[in-house]
Design goal:
alpha/beta, 308 residues, six-stranded mixed beta sheet, Alpha-Beta Plaits
Length: 308
């Protein structure tokens, strides 16, 4: 299956000389949910803006369902819906009018039934005659999603879609995202709520300092880079890790009442058995132990810190 988005050797340098993107290559599979993660200033919004035709690239190409975003702008852009990070819409228009107008901008014929369905899906139906300026921030965010869906795009970009949104609205949005993916819409999201990416995404890309440093299936990323921790709850506190246990790179926690041992889940030997034996030999006793695995957030922070 051909990718629905292909980014090739994409670079962006602003007039100030700042290089926001540096030779980015990326493919997005049709029908997937792709999470683009990165710290502030990493280039996420610039990359999305170029793909959506809002910013011109300095070099490179972008294809949206086979259409070049520069040479065949209208066809490429008609494939894409964008929910921007900023809440920008006409304050004095009604919800119905602004969503219907967005559909017309793409040359689509009037379709009141579709607009009604989109508004109902986003719990906006009872607000259809309300002016935008009278809506809460969360409801305005929903209007932006409705506008992005009004022309029935095959690709939907969500740039920090749940920023400033309460928990209930956030959950409703992700239910809608799941339904859209089931309908065949490809979804690319950026988010600071990494637990959302961990729950929703099929693949994860990490961008740092204008470069894509990793793209991986989420499950494979967790398997390859995830580490497990063994936490031992001690019977008596330790002031420091005994020198004879230095090889295990143990960490003290809980005011000296816990020993934390990190180990590689891929390794042939975890080292747990000899560790427990040496703890017994050192007279260190524990009353309980538990294991935990790295979250996607742990992995993301580690990747950005190392830059690889």
């Amino acid at each position: 299956m051909h990718p629905i988005i292909t980014v090739s050797d994409l670079s962006k340098t602003y007039a100030t000389g700042f290089s926001a993107l540096k030779g980015v290559n990326l493919t997005i599979r049709r029908g997937e949910i792709f999470a683009l993660l990165g710290p502030n200033g990493a280039g996420k919004t610039t990359l999305i803006s170029i793909i959506c035709g809002l910013v011109n690239a300095s070099a490179g190409t972008v294809l949206a369902d086979g259409h070049d975003i520069s040479r065949d702008y209208r066809a490429a852009r008609s494939k894409i819906g964008l929910v921007p990070q900023e809440l920008t819409t006409d304050a004095f228009e009604t919800v119905w009018s602004t969503v219907s107008f967005s559909r017309g901008l793409f040359g689509k014929p009037r379709n009141p039934a579709l607009i009604e369905r989109v508004l109902k899906d986003l719990s906006l139906w009872d607000k259809r005659d309300t002016q935008i300026r009278r809506l809460s921030g969360g409801m305005k965010r929903r209007v932006l999603i409705a506008k992005a869906l009004s022309h029935e795009p095959e690709i939907l970009f969500l740039d920090e879609p749940t920023a400033g949104v309460d928990v209930e609205l956030r959950q409703d949005m992700w239910k809608l995202v799941s339904r859209l993916r089931d309908d065949g819409v490809t979804i690319i999201l950026t988010t600071h709520y990494i637990e959302e990416a961990e729950e929703m995404a099929d693949r994860v890309g990490v961008i740092s300092k204008g470069e894509i440093i990793l793209v991986e299936d989420k499950a494979e990323l967790m398997r390859k880079l995830g580490r497990k921790q063994l936490t031992l709850s001690l019977l008596a506190p330790l002031a420091a890790v005994p020198p004879e246990l230095a090889a295990y790179d143990l960490a003290l926690a809980g005011d000296g009442m816990e020993l934390v041992y990190s180990y590689d889940t891929k390794a042939e030997r975890t080292g747990i058995t000899p560790l427990l034996q040496e703890l017994a030999g050192a007279g260190i006793r524990f009353r309980d132990l538990r294991t935990s695995q790295s979250s996607l957030e742990d992995i993301f922070v580690s990747l950005v810190r190392t830059g690889s």
